[in-house]
Amino acid sequence: MSQPKIERSLGQKVFRVLSGFEIAVVCFILLFLLTFFGTWEQQYLGLYQAIDKYFDIDSLFVVPRNEHDKIIFLPLPGTYWVIVVLSINMFCGGIVRMRKGWRTAAVLVSHFAILFMLVAGAVSSIAKKEGLMMVYQGEKSDYAQSYHSSDIEVFAYDEKGDRTAPTVISSGELEPLRNEDTLHVDLPEFPFELEVTGYLGASSMALAKNDPERAKNHKVIDGYFIHEVERSTTQEENMPGCYVTVSKGDEVYELMLSNLNPQPISFVIDGTRYGMLLTRKLWPMPFEVELNKTVGDYYPGTRKARWFQSDVTKVTDGNREDYEIIMNHPMRHGGFTLYQARWDKPQGRPFSGFAIVRNPSDRWPEWAFYVSTAALFTHFLTMLSLYIMRSTRKSSKAVS
User: Which of 55, 372, 384, 393 can pair with 113 through a Cys bridge, CB separation 3.0 to 4.6 Å?
Assistant: First the structure.
């Protein structure tokens, strides 16, 4: 006699779909494709741009393209959202739907750990912050600079010639600009108006008399002009540049700003001297890093560092702690992690570049890995023990 068919509610049907093995398989296939094409595009798009395109929370869909901007595959959902769906699937199917008991306890724990690892990735993509601190041997620093973003700082000089606290035109306002766009900036604390034009995300400075043909198509200021260059696949090598017009009544100043010029451009309005600088976004640190000694070595015949390490002192509220930072052994403090990222000694004066990362979920994947490994190992031993016990009982019955 056939069993009566059980009619499921809409909620049960939705839960069945969300917890189904089919969704897990589709998610893993999509993650493989996204990782493959993201790695493929990295070689000509650049690491930062590829991560931003394929893994950012704002990337709902991505279209894989080749170096000639031709489509090479159908649109794919963004990696972040695929992982969100996979996390829901794992929670519904691997935790809620799973049979509960002592035999499945270790598997349940491992699923929790893997889900925790996925959550760690989501937290990292939203809250992670990165910068670079450059320090010469014998000197100290208490700030880092962004790898990718540049701000315009506008400030006045006091009677002693020192800069006052700057007003910042953020990278968020500058980076969306195209070369032909104009950005009008409201600065109520300053007695002048300001416009940004000709913004270029990757630029170079040139002397007009050395390149007169190209200079004809660009604005020349004090004999120099900025022009667009091919974007580097390494984002931090791209140097933004722009023109700024400062005006008050009949007084008008045309300024040229570039990341290639580390010195501020100054001008005078109503007898007060002001300055402006296009610089990497600054990230103040809650501690100082003193570089006591840094040593390293190059690959033969190159200026590329093969190995390097630094002996540093971290100073926090007068407290001093010594650390040794090697390439794969960072310094950790209060949620900050300092990695040895660069090393060089131009003109015999060595310096170190420390990649500084603030990531609230920095150690979560590591903890999840340990828990998952221990749980799966426990499950394996449990199943092995049960198998041996059953085999032993069968052998005993056969003998008797």
Answer: 372
